[in-house]
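Sorry to interrupt, but I need a hand with the structure work. Could you write out one complete protein record for me, on any chain you like? Could you add the entry underneath, on a fresh line?
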Amino acid sequence: MPLPETTPARLAAYTVAAGLTLNAAIALTALITHPHINSDFLAFWSFPRFAAANPVADIYNAQKLQAFQQTLYPGFHSFYPYLYPPTLLLVTWWLKIFSFRAAQIIWTVAGLAAFLASAKTFFPQKWSPILAMLAGPAALITGATGETAFFTSALLLAGFGNLPKRKILAGILFGLLTLKPQLGVLIPFALVARGEWRTITAAALTAAALIAASCLAFPGQLWLVWAHTLPAYQSAYFAAVKSLNLNIIVTPAANLIVLGATPSIAWLVQTAFTLAIAVTTLVTFRRARNPKLAIAALFTGAFLAVPHAYAYDTITLTAALALIFEQIPFTWPATLAAGVIYLAPFLLLTPESHYFLYAFPLSIMYIVIIRLAFDPSPRETVRASPTADSYERIH
């Protein structure tokens, strides 16, 4: 007897409900018990304190920053390097005003609020994709560690959600994403392909304003120090495969290093991915029949086009899956494949984290999205959604 057609959709709904329950239970437990976990928020809280007490350029000195963090947190033996541009230090300077716990609460609440508002802009008529993003393991890891993914996901979603009618606002939001620039590396290709010159101008001016403000607040040479040290940090990460958990990095280069590839091979493959996805983004945003899937491809390709991106950043992959299922039915194969993408980051919370090699299923997902984006068979009528208004239909 064949299964009812709605069964895969119900399975997806049950999975989201279970994820929401799990994430809410963990959040409630954390509020009650205040567990001591290796929180990435310790890093963001330490950075402005270090810069206020030392020459600011030393924030890119691994040994000095590590020694400071270990005195700041008694019993702390890890290390959180500052890999970010100087502009992030500028906008997180306020963290040193508050105690750790107060700052973490403000940070988390502000991130969730920004994310919810932006997600509602992107999905104005639906709550199910928003709940699915909050229920996923990426959101759980972000909330538990105090990472930046709620903020960066908010900028991506709000940028594309506002692009149709508020092009300058969209550009400002994309410009702010330069605070963590690797996540927006494909956006210029998309905007150029669509001829969104007002948005490009607004983004460039916003990024320039951030840089100018950072040069007023800190020595301008800080940018040269960042540019000099970043490649060395990246190489050191890949060289430390035996002492660091590189599985949490979801890019092709990182996954190949985990599997034993030499750095030269990993960088060669990563470069090929970067070039191929940049060109594909240009072509997709210019010629794809379905503009929704062009954005889904960008959300997915962003994690394949750069060497350094983390599992907690992948909240927007759920938005990409939602856009896909606006175009195809909830069949068993499609639902189970989506489930692998959606649930796989949970492996990072288990002893089997070494099996989490995300670039491989993401590559398959990307190819499927590109195929669907150019396929004349998906539904001819684009339903009301943020991306339906984003660009005119391409015939």
Summary: DSSP finds 19 helices and no strands in the chain. The chain has one domain: 7-390. Residues 380-395 have pLDDT under 50 and may be disordered. Residues 7-390 form one domain.
